[in-house]
Structures are given as C-alpha cells and as structure tokens.
C-alpha cells in the first residue's frame, strides 16, 4: 500500500466536493489496513505521553461528516491506545437550555483541551454554519438581538459567523492548541447502504432514527454548505482535510497517519530534561530509598 501524504487530502485551494472521490482505491485488504493503523496508533500513544510531559501544546481534532460517515468508530479505533486521562471526546448535539444562554461558541470553548492533552470534537462548532443553515429556524432559539424571524437571517449573518469561527480557531492556535479538522467525505449511495444495514442487522438497530431519513432529503444542501465552510475556513493554523470515507478502515488509517505526520512538524515537543543538580544527586537519592 502506498504511503499516505497529508498534502493529498489537505485543503489549500478552493475545492469542489463533487470532484473529490469518496473512495480511495488501494491495493490492500482490511488486515493490511488494520496492521498499518496499529503501527500509527502505537506511535500516537507514545507521542501523547511526550506531549503530556512537555505540557505546552494541546491538540484539537475536529470531525465532521454526514450521518453514518464513521465518526464514532473512527474515534474508537484511532485513539484506543491513548491513555484515557489524556484524551477527551465531546459530542455536540442540539444545544441545551444552559448553552443557549451563552453565545454559540461558548460550549465549544469550555470543552477545549488542557495543555498536554487531546480533545476530539465529534461534530463541532461547524454545526452552527451547517445544520443551522439547512434549518435556519434553529437560530431563533439563540435569542439574538435583531433576529426575530428567519427572514432576519441574511447572507451577511452567515459571513460574519464564518469570520467568528476563523477568529476563534486563530486565537486558540496562537495560544498553543494544534487544530486539525477532518471532513469524512461519504457518498450518498454508501450512506444508503449503511442506513439499510442499521435496519437489517439487529445489533445496529439502536443506531437507526427516522430523523436520519429526513436529513438525507437535504443531502445537496449539506454538501453545498460543507463545501462553502471548508473553503472559507481551511487555514494554515487550522487546516481542513477531506477524507474519502466510503471505506471505513482506510479512512481511519488516513486520519491517524495525518495526525502523526502533522505532529512531527512540532519538533520542539520533547520530554523535558531534569535539572542538572537533580541528576547529579541520583546516587544520593538511591541510597535514601534503599535505606527507607
């Protein structure tokens, strides 16, 4: 299987999602993909330990994608070797009453990772320019000044919200949070097959919701708004990566490999060295412990 180059998936110029394949054709079976993923998992686990000791950076992994694109299973498989104390997963659903009493970015801001740790946003602050664009009536629940009806939500409103998201990401990146954003690019046909499996396979029945079928009717609108959001918010400080997601095993490996490769750019992340005076007294410390 050929080596994965993050630049093949990184959004640096304007993209058209309809032109990007949802399946990466590779000469590898599932066992080989799993073996490749295992190796990267181990590297990421070791990196997590070093980053925790260094304690100057945090990492925010943002996952977006249509229903059934594989976000949950990707999180489970890519990060399963991590120390649970060093990674936190946040799944952002419809804002609750307390969250609606704050601005729309508040609940995301307070979920940011501490220094030395990873956070994974399973659905992210981008829901505020995706779901709410498809269903602008949701904005009314935010009780914003000047927004009394859906007709008050103009193109200028969405442009400003995109600017706010860019500013949010720039701010946290400039203060030590490494931001990596992944769009799991699924085909409509593959989504249909996965929804059918949820109905046909008993162990997956619980995942099915009639709401999934309703949202599927808005497929083209979602693709349009994803494309616009990605094009306007993929920056050097907070890049987007479009990941072919029809093959779950391959998507997991690609995401893991990109995280690993991107983290290698931060060459300053190292285990801190002990003070010379402490190292010089190692033998004395040993003697104290041997006698105690």
UniProtKB/TrEMBL annotation:
MF terms from GO for this chain are: polyphosphate kinase activity
**Polyphosphate kinase-2-related domain: residues covered:** 28-266
Show the Pfam families listed in the entry.
PPK2
Question: What does UniProt give as the signal peptide span?
Answer: none
Could you mention a single GO BP entry for this protein?
polyphosphate metabolic process
Keywords in UniProt for this one?
Answer: Kinase, Transferase
Alphabetized InterPro entries for the sequence = P-loop_NTPase, Polyphosphate_phosphotransfera, PPK2-rel_1, PPK2-related
What's this protein's family per the entry?
A: Belongs to the polyphosphate kinase 2 (PPK2) family. Class I subfamily.
Which NCBIfam families does the entry mention? Answer: PPK2_rel_1
- The name of this protein is Phosphate--nucleotide phosphotransferase
């Amino acid at each position: 299987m050929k080596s994965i180059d993050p630049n093949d998936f990184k959004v640096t110029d304007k993209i058209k999602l309809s032109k990007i394949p949802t399946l990466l054709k590779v000469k590898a079976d599932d066992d080989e993909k799993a073996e490749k993923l295992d190796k990267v998992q181990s590297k990421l686990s070791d990196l997590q330990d070093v980053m925790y000791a260094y304690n100057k950076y945090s990492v925010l992994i943002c996952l977006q994608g249509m229903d059934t694109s594989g976000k949950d299973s990707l999180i489970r498989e890519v990060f399963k070797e991590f120390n649970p104390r060093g990674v936190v997963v946040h799944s952002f659903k419809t804002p609750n009453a307390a969250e609606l009493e704050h601005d729309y970015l508040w609940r995301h801001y307070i979920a940011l990772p501490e220094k030395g740790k990873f956070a994974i946003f399973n659905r992210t602050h981008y829901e505020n320019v995706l779901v709410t664009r498809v269903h602008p009536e949701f904005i009314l629940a935010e009780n914003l000044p000047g927004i009394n009806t859906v007709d008050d939500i103009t193109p200028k409103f969405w442009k400003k919200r995109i600017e706010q998201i860019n500013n949010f990401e720039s701010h946290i990146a400039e203060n030590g949070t490494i931001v990596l954003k992944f769009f799991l690019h699924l085909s409509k046909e593959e989504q249909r097959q996965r929804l059918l499996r949820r109905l046909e396979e008993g162990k997956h029945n619980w995942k099915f919701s009639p709401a999934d079928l309703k949202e599927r009717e808005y497929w083209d609108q979602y693709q349009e708004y994803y494309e616009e959001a990605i094009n306007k918010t993929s920056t050097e400080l907070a890049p987007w990566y479009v990941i072919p997601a029809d093959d779950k095993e391959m998507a997991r490996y690609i995401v893991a490999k990109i995280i690993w490769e991107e983290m290698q750019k931060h060459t300053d992340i190292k285990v801190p060295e002990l003070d010379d005076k402490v190292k010089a007294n190692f033998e004395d410390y040993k003697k104290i412990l041997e006698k105690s």
